[in-house]
Amino acid sequence: MRKSLLARIPTALLLLAAALLLSSCGWSLWDSPMTTVRPKSGFGRMTHQIFMLISWWTLGIGIAVEAGLLWVCYRFREKPGQPLPTQVHGHTLLEVSWTIAFAVILLIFAVPTIPVIFETQAAPPPTALKVDVAGRQWWWEFKYPDLKIVTANELHIPAGQQVSFNLHAPDVIHSFWMPQLGGKRDVVPGRVNRITLTPDGPGELPGQCAEYCGMSHANMRFRVIVHEKGDFEKWVANQQKPALSPTDPLAQKGAELFSQSACVGCHTITGVSGGVLGPNLTHFASRKTLGANLMANTPENVAKWIENPGHLKPGALMPDLGMRGEQTKALAAYLLSLK
Amino acid sequence: MATHAAFMPGTKASTGSVIWSWITTVDHKRIGILYGVSAFFFFVVGGIEALIMRLQLAHPDGTVVGAQRFNELFTMHGTTMVFLAIMPMSAAFFNYMIPLMIGARDVAFPRLNALSYWIFFSGALLLHLSFLAGAVPDGGWFGYANLTSHQFSPTHSIDFWMLGLQVLGISSLMAGFNFIVTIVNMRAPGMTLMRMPLFVWMSFVVQFLVVLAFPAITVALILLMFDRFFGTLFYAPAAGADPLLWQHLFWIFGHPEVYILILPAMGIVSEVLPTFSRKPLFGAPVVIYSGIMIGFFGFGVWSHHMFSVGMGPVADSAFSIATMLIAVPTGVKILNWIGTLWGGRIQFKTPLYFSLGFIAMFTLGGLSGVMHASPPVDLQQTDSYFIVAHFHYVLFGGSIFGLFSGVYYWWPKIFGKVLDDRLGKLHFWLMMIGFNVTFFPMHFLGLIGMPRRIYTYAPDLGWNFWNLVSTIGAFTIAVSLLVFFANVVKTTRSGAPAPADPWDGRTLEWTIPSPPPVYNFAVVPTVHDRDDFWVQKYGDGHGTPPRKPSPPAHVDTSSIHMPPPSYWPILLAGAFLFMVSGALVSIYQVILGGFLTLYCMTRFMLEYHHQTDVGPSAGGHH
Questions:
Q1: Mean local confidence (pLDDT), A201-215
Q2: Can you say how many angstroms the Cα of residue B42 is from the centroid of all Cα atoms in its chain?
């Protein structure tokens, strides 16, 4: 029993190693929307190079140690009639050598690490597009101070241009993470952290809060939309326009409801209200998702959300204002007219 | 002897007197068993919490529990496993084995030892009273400020957590000082520091880590307590405070804590490997120095838990290099263990299986640790499932496998029966497979972006398959534990009595009967070697012949003075718990509890004050 079980382990390890090899060669395992190993920015690639360097070394060392352990166990297993083994207490030269060997290997990791630490934290050039990110329980606000745009939960940036994110935390600690673009950075109350990076090409990718921040931490998601330069300018032009006035009667009724209810205390719609506790809704209909990338931005979902935000997102700070039925339909129609 | 015999099956003693003898015991062996049983109980509790979390995460958009309950589960799972399972399991071995391995009759302060157990028990009780109060801690096991402030956590949940941890810290500090004094002062004649068994050495290092690290978290918790109870602003950013203060204080404790959790297991492995390879530990001095170095460096790497907070490139680089440095003594230890097996005559018994499992799994945990020693890499991995995988390889694959190795190794010494070897190996294989099926996929999950501490996830992120696999693994681990419990029941019912030296051991605990008499050693031994018992049996293999065992001593064991039982430790701990829990009820309870605590403390201190002259006759109590 002992032998057969022991014999199975190397096979299992080989299979595992094969799986790892296969997967690193492009098996779909790594192609998740939140993948950290398919970097799409220079910042991400610098990190990834060190990750791969350390990974290959540690994979090699790991396989060598595990295989060595198994071989030693097999080779020196007890056989009947054997005398007591020689009582070896140690071997100074051997021990000194492997201590030095470990130190050298770690030096191989440390030397390329240090410059990357400094490069990735360098001050951004003045030409970089500035985005002020605010992490709030449990949604993201994105302000473009130079473009005078405020939006939420969907971040639009141009491909090939340096973007400098300044991270603010009005409530508790969060962590701003766009895995495909690079590593995360904590969003800490009382200080402004920064990430600077240049996204490669257009595309859509998800991001998420990575530091536990209370009840709906799991629902603090966002979308990043990387545009071609021209598309980004179109998006900017639209966001800079004032809010549209509704033409549809249902939407008009919704607009009336909105301006007469407590909605205005927390939400800004340019020309209508100026609340700042909740997301800016001026161009609400231009967003594809609702509730910090939780669900599609459809009339049904918006109505459900208004009726009971805490039901769709536990702990949501937006209260149930008692709107029901026709009222929420009207509000949804209004909000979704704000292209 | 009566108190010890009462525990053995087959003797007649009323249940009441058995319970009384256990709650008033000051015998290090019984306190060790109390720690062990409590630790297993909480290991199961923490395990059930983990299973519920795994059920919730088995599928996307899970509905087994809600957000609030899930947050409570991971907070209590982490807190329980660290403070109520692994630490007390190590404490069980410190208590039971250290005096036996250094040839002592008890620890230096037996009543303090009992007190530290009952204070531990109080802290555990307080933490779990939160379930009855309906305010379960939900801030994560490292409870980052300022989420723990009154503004963001208005219920008593965080109060239970911060008071419970303070109580547990007091217990750990008392035990730490007790074992330092015991190891320094109570070694048998001839046992120089370098002849001390490796488990005692690693435990010795751990006690220093405890007494130096716990004050840091105590300070952090007291500041938090002031913030929450008295409105101070130590962690309030609105008042200009930096919430990162908490993180620094916490991890100055938290990183040494990792070594508090792993070094005892390393000590156990360093005992088990030589015994079953039948040769001495390879390079024992290097293993000892490596343990000391790990303990020392352990205080200089705390900020590697904080690479993402924005400390700036200089601090990031310094902590990165320090962290890589600590990998050197750790790697050296692994090769020394393999060197111990090399050229041996390896007997594959269950304790060795678990020690080999420790080496195999801890190596993987160490290697993934090296990856995030590099800050840029860490920025992708921190707070993702990659980290969850990493620290479970260290704390489960390392600590738990090592501790189970100790359980199988010392069970015959403690309970007088050898655990069944076939069931033991079945337990090992199930646990090994279950562990890897649970935690290896978490590496993948982390690399494809799954953050930790999320109660739900969307179905379109490619995380579904590996989460399901991981849940299946978790239940395999649960089955392996059932096998262990079956083994315990079977062995207790029908196992044959164990001899004093079932494994052909090397250290002093194997020279005395299993289980040991209450006074441990009828004659305190004189030590000539690190593997003293082995050399006595076989010679040192380099010309020194086996020593003639000394003739059986004719000692009147009734003349051996052992400390009598005391009920003041449990009363003092009870009064203390009453005082501390008053902070959640009423100031009057705190004041009343304070007076009760002072009263018990005084009685505890003066218990033998007027009895010093009756020393020898006190031997009649045992």
A1: 96
A2: 12
